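Let us practice reading a record.
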Amino acid sequence: MRKCRPTTISAPMAFVLAIVFSIRSAAQTPGPVPVPANLTVADAEAIALKNHPQVSIARLLTLAQGQVTREVRSAELPTVAGNLTAVGAHDGGRVTAGLLNNPVLYTRAAGGVTVSQLITDFGRTRNLIASAGLREKAEQAGEIATEADIRLAVDQAFYRALAAQAVVNVAKKTVAFRQDTANLIGSLADAKLKSTLDRSFADVNLNQAQLLLLDAQSAQDAAVANLITMMGYERQQNLVLEDPKGKLEAPTQDLESLTALAMRSRPDLTALDDQLQSAEKFRKAEHDLWRPSISALGAAGGAPIRADQITSSWYGAAGVNLNVPVFNGGLYSARAKEADYRANAANERVRDLRNRIARDVRVTWLSAQSAYQRIDVTARLLTQANEALDLAQTRYKLGLSSIVELSQAELAQTSAEIGNTNARYDYQQSLAAIRYQTGQ
Protein backbone atom coordinates (compact mmCIF):
# COMPACT_ATOMS: atom_id res chain seq x y z
CA MET A 1 0.00 0.00 0.00
CA ARG A 2 1.44 3.40 -1.05
CA LYS A 3 1.95 6.04 1.59
CA CYS A 4 0.86 9.57 0.87
CA ARG A 5 3.53 12.18 1.21
CA PRO A 6 2.66 15.40 3.00
CA THR A 7 2.39 18.33 0.61
CA THR A 8 4.90 21.09 1.28
CA ILE A 9 4.34 24.73 0.35
CA SER A 10 7.25 27.02 -0.25
CA ALA A 11 7.51 30.30 1.62
CA PRO A 12 6.81 32.50 -1.45
CA MET A 13 3.76 30.41 -2.33
CA ALA A 14 2.49 30.64 1.26
CA PHE A 15 2.88 34.41 1.14
CA VAL A 16 0.91 34.63 -2.11
CA LEU A 17 -1.86 32.40 -0.72
CA ALA A 18 -2.07 34.49 2.43
CA ILE A 19 -2.55 37.63 0.34
CA VAL A 20 -5.23 35.93 -1.78
CA PHE A 21 -7.14 34.70 1.28
CA SER A 22 -6.93 38.10 2.96
CA ILE A 23 -8.29 39.80 -0.16
CA ARG A 24 -11.14 37.30 -0.38
CA SER A 25 -11.94 37.72 3.31
CA ALA A 26 -11.97 41.49 2.96
CA ALA A 27 -14.28 41.21 -0.02
CA GLN A 28 -16.66 38.87 1.82
CA THR A 29 -16.81 41.00 4.99
CA PRO A 30 -18.43 44.31 4.14
CA GLY A 31 -17.15 47.23 6.14
CA PRO A 32 -18.90 50.47 6.99
CA VAL A 33 -19.87 52.69 4.09
CA PRO A 34 -17.09 55.24 3.51
CA VAL A 35 -17.88 58.91 4.00
CA PRO A 36 -17.65 61.01 0.82
CA ALA A 37 -15.16 63.89 0.69
CA ASN A 38 -18.00 66.43 0.61
CA LEU A 39 -21.02 65.09 2.45
CA THR A 40 -24.42 66.21 1.16
CA VAL A 41 -27.69 65.66 2.97
CA ALA A 42 -28.62 63.01 0.37
CA ASP A 43 -25.33 61.20 1.02
CA ALA A 44 -25.98 61.27 4.76
CA GLU A 45 -29.46 59.79 4.26
CA ALA A 46 -28.16 57.00 2.01
CA ILE A 47 -25.38 56.10 4.45
CA ALA A 48 -27.78 56.07 7.41
CA LEU A 49 -30.22 53.76 5.61
CA LYS A 50 -27.35 51.30 5.06
CA ASN A 51 -25.63 51.61 8.43
CA HIS A 52 -28.22 52.44 11.08
CA PRO A 53 -29.14 49.44 13.27
CA GLN A 54 -32.78 50.48 13.54
CA VAL A 55 -33.18 49.94 9.79
CA SER A 56 -31.63 46.48 10.10
CA ILE A 57 -33.91 45.67 13.05
CA ALA A 58 -37.01 46.65 11.08
CA ARG A 59 -35.86 44.59 8.08
CA LEU A 60 -35.18 41.52 10.23
CA LEU A 61 -38.57 41.79 11.95
CA THR A 62 -40.22 41.91 8.51
CA LEU A 63 -38.38 38.75 7.47
CA ALA A 64 -39.35 37.07 10.74
CA GLN A 65 -43.02 37.91 10.19
CA GLY A 66 -42.75 36.40 6.72
CA GLN A 67 -41.78 33.11 8.34
CA VAL A 68 -44.82 33.39 10.62
CA THR A 69 -46.98 33.51 7.50
CA ARG A 70 -45.32 30.31 6.29
CA GLU A 71 -45.89 28.71 9.70
CA VAL A 72 -49.63 29.43 9.59
CA ARG A 73 -49.94 28.32 5.95
CA SER A 74 -48.39 24.96 6.84
CA ALA A 75 -51.71 23.94 8.43
CA GLU A 76 -53.17 23.57 4.92
CA LEU A 77 -50.40 21.28 3.71
CA PRO A 78 -50.09 17.56 4.42
CA THR A 79 -47.96 16.33 7.30
CA VAL A 80 -45.80 13.24 6.77
CA ALA A 81 -43.93 11.51 9.58
CA GLY A 82 -41.79 8.38 9.54
CA ASN A 83 -41.84 6.11 12.58
CA LEU A 84 -39.51 3.39 13.85
CA THR A 85 -40.83 1.62 16.93
CA ALA A 86 -39.43 -1.21 19.01
CA VAL A 87 -41.39 -2.43 22.04
CA GLY A 88 -40.71 -5.08 24.59
CA ALA A 89 -44.02 -5.90 26.28
CA HIS A 90 -45.85 -8.41 28.40
CA ASP A 91 -47.61 -10.00 25.46
CA GLY A 92 -51.35 -9.96 25.76
CA GLY A 93 -51.37 -7.33 28.48
CA ARG A 94 -53.51 -4.25 28.04
CA VAL A 95 -53.27 -0.62 29.16
CA THR A 96 -56.32 -0.49 31.39
CA ALA A 97 -55.80 2.58 33.63
CA GLY A 98 -55.93 6.17 32.51
CA LEU A 99 -57.70 5.55 29.19
CA LEU A 100 -61.24 4.76 28.08
CA ASN A 101 -60.02 2.15 25.63
CA ASN A 102 -57.58 -0.62 26.55
CA PRO A 103 -55.08 -1.18 23.72
CA VAL A 104 -53.36 -4.53 23.69
CA LEU A 105 -49.57 -4.73 24.05
CA TYR A 106 -47.29 -6.92 21.88
CA THR A 107 -43.56 -7.13 21.49
CA ARG A 108 -42.54 -5.85 18.04
CA ALA A 109 -40.07 -3.88 15.93
CA ALA A 110 -41.71 -2.00 13.08
CA GLY A 111 -41.42 0.99 10.80
CA GLY A 112 -44.01 3.01 8.92
CA VAL A 113 -45.28 6.32 7.61
CA THR A 114 -48.16 8.45 8.88
CA VAL A 115 -49.81 11.08 6.68
CA SER A 116 -52.37 13.64 7.85
CA GLN A 117 -54.16 16.32 5.85
CA LEU A 118 -56.67 18.96 6.84
CA ILE A 119 -59.62 18.78 4.46
CA THR A 120 -61.53 21.80 5.71
CA ASP A 121 -62.17 23.78 8.85
CA PHE A 122 -64.73 26.00 7.10
CA GLY A 123 -62.55 29.09 6.72
CA ARG A 124 -60.65 29.35 10.02
CA THR A 125 -57.21 28.50 8.60
CA ARG A 126 -57.74 30.76 5.59
CA ASN A 127 -58.53 33.65 7.93
CA LEU A 128 -55.45 32.89 10.01
CA ILE A 129 -53.28 32.90 6.88
CA ALA A 130 -54.80 36.19 5.74
CA SER A 131 -54.23 37.67 9.21
CA ALA A 132 -50.57 36.62 9.19
CA GLY A 133 -50.10 37.97 5.68
CA LEU A 134 -51.54 41.34 6.69
CA ARG A 135 -49.25 41.44 9.72
CA GLU A 136 -46.35 40.85 7.33
CA LYS A 137 -47.55 43.79 5.21
CA ALA A 138 -47.75 45.87 8.37
CA GLU A 139 -44.14 44.99 9.19
CA GLN A 140 -43.11 46.01 5.68
CA ALA A 141 -44.88 49.34 6.09
CA GLY A 142 -43.26 49.66 9.52
CA GLU A 143 -39.87 49.14 7.90
CA ILE A 144 -40.59 52.02 5.51
CA ALA A 145 -41.75 54.13 8.47
CA THR A 146 -38.50 53.39 10.29
CA GLU A 147 -36.54 54.50 7.24
CA ALA A 148 -38.58 57.71 7.17
CA ASP A 149 -37.83 58.29 10.87
CA ILE A 150 -34.11 57.81 10.27
CA ARG A 151 -34.19 60.06 7.20
CA LEU A 152 -35.88 62.86 9.16
CA ALA A 153 -33.46 62.50 12.07
CA VAL A 154 -30.49 62.63 9.68
CA ASP A 155 -31.86 65.71 7.91
CA GLN A 156 -32.39 67.52 11.20
CA ALA A 157 -28.94 66.50 12.49
CA PHE A 158 -27.32 67.57 9.19
CA TYR A 159 -28.91 71.03 9.19
CA ARG A 160 -28.18 71.51 12.89
CA ALA A 161 -24.54 70.68 12.21
CA LEU A 162 -24.49 73.15 9.30
CA ALA A 163 -26.09 75.81 11.50
CA ALA A 164 -23.55 75.16 14.26
CA GLN A 165 -20.74 75.37 11.71
CA ALA A 166 -22.09 78.68 10.42
CA VAL A 167 -22.36 80.06 13.96
CA VAL A 168 -18.71 79.12 14.54
CA ASN A 169 -17.75 81.12 11.46
CA VAL A 170 -19.78 84.08 12.73
CA ALA A 171 -18.11 83.79 16.13
CA LYS A 172 -14.64 83.73 14.53
CA LYS A 173 -15.40 86.86 12.53
CA THR A 174 -16.79 88.50 15.66
CA VAL A 175 -13.63 87.68 17.63
CA ALA A 176 -11.42 89.06 14.83
CA PHE A 177 -13.52 92.22 14.53
CA ARG A 178 -13.61 92.90 18.26
CA GLN A 179 -9.90 92.13 18.55
CA ASP A 180 -9.19 94.88 16.02
CA THR A 181 -11.52 97.23 17.91
CA ALA A 182 -9.85 96.41 21.23
CA ASN A 183 -6.38 96.97 19.72
CA LEU A 184 -7.46 100.31 18.28
CA ILE A 185 -9.04 101.51 21.54
CA GLY A 186 -6.02 100.26 23.48
CA SER A 187 -3.70 102.31 21.27
CA LEU A 188 -5.91 105.37 21.69
CA ALA A 189 -6.01 104.83 25.47
CA ASP A 190 -2.21 104.59 25.58
CA ALA A 191 -2.09 107.89 23.70
CA LYS A 192 -4.48 109.39 26.26
CA LEU A 193 -7.10 109.90 23.52
CA LYS A 194 -9.54 107.43 25.08
CA SER A 195 -10.25 106.55 28.67
CA THR A 196 -9.40 103.33 30.43
CA LEU A 197 -13.16 102.76 30.73
CA ASP A 198 -13.34 102.51 26.94
CA ARG A 199 -10.48 99.98 27.00
CA SER A 200 -12.32 97.96 29.66
CA PHE A 201 -15.52 97.91 27.60
CA ALA A 202 -13.59 96.79 24.52
CA ASP A 203 -11.89 94.00 26.48
CA VAL A 204 -15.25 92.88 27.88
CA ASN A 205 -16.72 92.74 24.37
CA LEU A 206 -13.72 90.74 23.15
CA ASN A 207 -14.01 88.26 26.02
CA GLN A 208 -17.73 87.84 25.30
CA ALA A 209 -16.90 87.07 21.67
CA GLN A 210 -14.30 84.50 22.72
CA LEU A 211 -16.85 82.83 25.01
CA LEU A 212 -19.32 82.82 22.11
CA LEU A 213 -16.71 81.07 19.96
CA LEU A 214 -16.04 78.44 22.64
CA ASP A 215 -19.76 77.73 23.04
CA ALA A 216 -20.24 77.61 19.28
CA GLN A 217 -17.37 75.16 18.82
CA SER A 218 -18.77 72.95 21.59
CA ALA A 219 -22.22 73.03 19.99
CA GLN A 220 -20.69 72.19 16.60
CA ASP A 221 -18.84 69.19 18.04
CA ALA A 222 -22.04 67.93 19.66
CA ALA A 223 -24.06 68.42 16.45
CA VAL A 224 -21.47 66.59 14.34
CA ALA A 225 -21.30 63.75 16.90
CA ASN A 226 -25.09 63.41 16.72
CA LEU A 227 -24.96 63.33 12.91
CA ILE A 228 -22.26 60.65 12.98
CA THR A 229 -24.41 58.53 15.31
CA MET A 230 -27.50 58.96 13.13
CA MET A 231 -25.46 57.82 10.13
CA GLY A 232 -24.77 54.56 11.98
CA TYR A 233 -21.08 55.03 12.81
CA GLU A 234 -19.59 54.07 16.14
CA ARG A 235 -16.32 55.92 15.76
CA GLN A 236 -15.56 59.55 15.03
CA GLN A 237 -15.60 60.50 11.34
CA ASN A 238 -14.06 63.47 9.60
CA LEU A 239 -17.03 65.21 7.98
CA VAL A 240 -16.94 68.03 5.48
CA LEU A 241 -20.54 69.14 5.15
CA GLU A 242 -21.69 70.57 1.84
CA ASP A 243 -24.11 73.43 2.28
CA PRO A 244 -26.98 73.21 -0.24
CA LYS A 245 -27.00 76.42 -2.23
CA GLY A 246 -29.80 78.07 -4.09
CA LYS A 247 -32.74 80.22 -3.25
CA LEU A 248 -35.23 78.79 -0.81
CA GLU A 249 -38.82 78.81 -1.99
CA ALA A 250 -41.92 79.12 0.15
CA PRO A 251 -44.16 76.03 0.57
CA THR A 252 -46.45 75.91 -2.45
CA GLN A 253 -49.01 73.31 -1.37
CA ASP A 254 -51.93 74.33 0.78
CA LEU A 255 -52.75 72.74 4.11
CA GLU A 256 -55.69 70.66 2.88
CA SER A 257 -53.73 69.03 0.06
CA LEU A 258 -50.81 68.27 2.38
CA THR A 259 -53.16 66.66 4.90
CA ALA A 260 -54.79 64.53 2.20
CA LEU A 261 -51.35 63.50 0.94
CA ALA A 262 -50.31 62.50 4.46
CA MET A 263 -53.41 60.34 4.90
CA ARG A 264 -52.57 58.52 1.65
CA SER A 265 -48.81 58.24 2.01
CA ARG A 266 -47.80 57.95 5.67
CA PRO A 267 -46.23 54.48 6.09
CA ASP A 268 -47.01 54.32 9.81
CA LEU A 269 -50.70 54.86 9.03
CA THR A 270 -50.49 52.15 6.36
CA ALA A 271 -48.96 49.83 8.95
CA LEU A 272 -51.78 50.48 11.40
CA ASP A 273 -54.39 49.95 8.66
CA ASP A 274 -52.81 46.58 7.86
CA GLN A 275 -52.76 45.70 11.55
CA LEU A 276 -56.45 46.60 11.75
CA GLN A 277 -57.29 44.35 8.79
CA SER A 278 -55.18 41.59 10.32
CA ALA A 279 -57.09 41.95 13.59
CA GLU A 280 -60.39 41.71 11.70
CA LYS A 281 -59.27 38.51 9.98
CA PHE A 282 -58.10 37.09 13.29
CA ARG A 283 -61.43 38.04 14.85
CA LYS A 284 -63.22 35.99 12.20
CA ALA A 285 -60.83 33.09 12.74
CA GLU A 286 -61.48 33.08 16.49
CA HIS A 287 -65.25 33.09 15.91
CA ASP A 288 -64.71 30.15 13.52
CA LEU A 289 -63.37 28.04 16.39
CA TRP A 290 -66.90 26.76 16.93
CA ARG A 291 -67.04 25.35 13.40
CA PRO A 292 -66.22 21.67 12.84
CA SER A 293 -63.04 20.53 11.12
CA ILE A 294 -62.57 17.57 8.79
CA SER A 295 -59.20 15.89 8.35
CA ALA A 296 -57.84 12.74 6.72
CA LEU A 297 -55.31 10.35 8.22
CA GLY A 298 -53.41 7.48 6.66
CA ALA A 299 -50.79 5.08 8.02
CA ALA A 300 -48.81 2.22 6.45
CA GLY A 301 -45.76 0.17 7.40
CA GLY A 302 -44.38 -3.22 8.28
CA ALA A 303 -43.38 -5.24 11.34
CA PRO A 304 -40.66 -7.73 10.44
CA ILE A 305 -40.16 -8.59 14.11
CA ARG A 306 -43.42 -9.19 15.94
CA ALA A 307 -45.20 -11.33 18.45
CA ASP A 308 -47.10 -14.37 17.22
CA GLN A 309 -50.40 -12.63 17.89
CA ILE A 310 -49.59 -10.11 15.10
CA THR A 311 -50.39 -12.27 12.12
CA SER A 312 -49.64 -9.80 9.26
CA SER A 313 -46.18 -8.49 8.44
CA TRP A 314 -47.56 -5.17 7.13
CA TYR A 315 -50.32 -2.79 8.04
CA GLY A 316 -52.20 0.00 6.33
CA ALA A 317 -55.25 2.12 7.10
CA ALA A 318 -56.90 5.38 6.02
CA GLY A 319 -59.74 7.33 7.50
CA VAL A 320 -61.55 10.63 7.83
CA ASN A 321 -62.25 12.38 11.11
CA LEU A 322 -64.90 15.01 11.84
CA ASN A 323 -64.19 17.07 14.93
CA VAL A 324 -67.15 19.04 16.33
CA PRO A 325 -66.50 21.32 19.34
CA VAL A 326 -69.20 20.97 21.99
CA PHE A 327 -67.97 22.43 25.28
CA ASN A 328 -64.55 23.60 26.52
CA GLY A 329 -65.29 25.62 29.63
CA GLY A 330 -65.89 28.89 27.75
CA LEU A 331 -62.41 28.94 26.16
CA TYR A 332 -63.58 29.64 22.60
CA SER A 333 -66.07 32.27 23.73
CA ALA A 334 -63.37 34.09 25.70
CA ARG A 335 -60.96 33.95 22.76
CA ALA A 336 -63.63 35.36 20.42
CA LYS A 337 -64.37 38.20 22.86
CA GLU A 338 -60.66 38.94 23.24
CA ALA A 339 -60.28 39.14 19.45
CA ASP A 340 -63.28 41.50 19.27
CA TYR A 341 -61.78 43.84 21.85
CA ARG A 342 -58.36 43.81 20.18
CA ALA A 343 -59.86 44.55 16.77
CA ASN A 344 -61.82 47.46 18.24
CA ALA A 345 -58.66 48.74 19.92
CA ALA A 346 -56.80 48.52 16.59
CA ASN A 347 -59.55 50.58 14.97
CA GLU A 348 -59.23 53.24 17.67
CA ARG A 349 -55.45 53.33 17.19
CA VAL A 350 -55.96 54.08 13.50
CA ARG A 351 -58.42 56.86 14.34
CA ASP A 352 -56.04 58.32 16.93
CA LEU A 353 -53.11 58.32 14.50
CA ARG A 354 -55.19 60.03 11.80
CA ASN A 355 -56.05 62.79 14.27
CA ARG A 356 -52.41 63.21 15.25
CA ILE A 357 -51.29 63.24 11.61
CA ALA A 358 -53.77 66.02 10.82
CA ARG A 359 -52.48 68.00 13.83
CA ASP A 360 -48.79 67.41 13.03
CA VAL A 361 -49.21 68.40 9.37
CA ARG A 362 -50.99 71.60 10.41
CA VAL A 363 -48.34 72.51 13.02
CA THR A 364 -45.46 71.67 10.68
CA TRP A 365 -46.97 73.68 7.84
CA LEU A 366 -47.47 76.71 10.09
CA SER A 367 -43.91 76.38 11.41
CA ALA A 368 -42.57 76.26 7.85
CA GLN A 369 -44.51 79.39 6.92
CA SER A 370 -43.16 81.19 9.97
CA ALA A 371 -39.60 79.97 9.34
CA TYR A 372 -39.72 81.17 5.74
CA GLN A 373 -40.89 84.62 6.82
CA ARG A 374 -38.08 84.76 9.40
CA ILE A 375 -35.48 84.46 6.63
CA ASP A 376 -36.54 87.78 5.11
CA VAL A 377 -37.02 89.50 8.46
CA THR A 378 -33.63 88.41 9.82
CA ALA A 379 -31.93 89.43 6.55
CA ARG A 380 -33.38 92.96 6.86
CA LEU A 381 -32.44 93.02 10.54
CA LEU A 382 -28.85 92.04 9.69
CA THR A 383 -28.62 94.78 7.06
CA GLN A 384 -29.88 97.34 9.54
CA ALA A 385 -27.53 96.05 12.27
CA ASN A 386 -24.53 96.32 9.91
CA GLU A 387 -25.48 99.89 9.04
CA ALA A 388 -25.95 100.74 12.71
CA LEU A 389 -22.54 99.27 13.57
CA ASP A 390 -20.82 101.24 10.80
CA LEU A 391 -22.51 104.40 12.00
CA ALA A 392 -21.64 103.69 15.64
CA GLN A 393 -17.97 103.14 14.71
CA THR A 394 -17.84 106.37 12.78
CA ARG A 395 -19.52 108.31 15.59
CA TYR A 396 -17.17 106.77 18.17
CA LYS A 397 -14.05 107.59 16.16
CA LEU A 398 -15.26 111.19 15.78
CA GLY A 399 -15.94 111.39 19.50
CA LEU A 400 -19.67 111.87 19.02
CA SER A 401 -20.74 108.79 21.03
CA SER A 402 -19.61 106.66 23.93
CA ILE A 403 -18.20 103.16 24.05
CA VAL A 404 -21.59 101.98 25.34
CA GLU A 405 -23.26 102.85 22.04
CA LEU A 406 -20.54 101.01 20.09
CA SER A 407 -20.81 97.96 22.36
CA GLN A 408 -24.57 97.78 21.92
CA ALA A 409 -24.17 98.06 18.14
CA GLU A 410 -21.63 95.21 18.15
CA LEU A 411 -23.91 92.99 20.24
CA ALA A 412 -26.91 93.75 18.02
CA GLN A 413 -24.91 92.98 14.86
CA THR A 414 -23.65 89.65 16.23
CA SER A 415 -27.13 88.63 17.37
CA ALA A 416 -28.63 89.60 14.00
CA GLU A 417 -26.03 87.62 12.05
CA ILE A 418 -26.56 84.50 14.17
CA GLY A 419 -30.33 84.88 13.82
CA ASN A 420 -30.06 85.20 10.04
CA THR A 421 -27.78 82.15 9.90
CA ASN A 422 -30.12 80.02 11.98
CA ALA A 423 -33.24 81.12 10.06
CA ARG A 424 -32.07 79.52 6.82
CA TYR A 425 -31.34 76.15 8.40
CA ASP A 426 -34.46 76.24 10.56
CA TYR A 427 -36.51 76.59 7.39
CA GLN A 428 -34.70 73.65 5.76
CA GLN A 429 -35.48 71.56 8.84
CA SER A 430 -39.12 72.61 8.51
CA LEU A 431 -39.17 71.46 4.89
CA ALA A 432 -37.70 68.11 5.94
CA ALA A 433 -40.40 67.84 8.60
CA ILE A 434 -43.12 68.54 6.01
CA ARG A 435 -41.73 65.80 3.78
CA TYR A 436 -41.78 63.42 6.73
CA GLN A 437 -45.27 64.36 7.90
CA THR A 438 -46.71 63.89 4.41
CA GLY A 439 -44.91 60.59 3.77
CA GLN A 440 -42.75 61.89 0.91
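A brief commentary: The longest helix spans residues 124-190.
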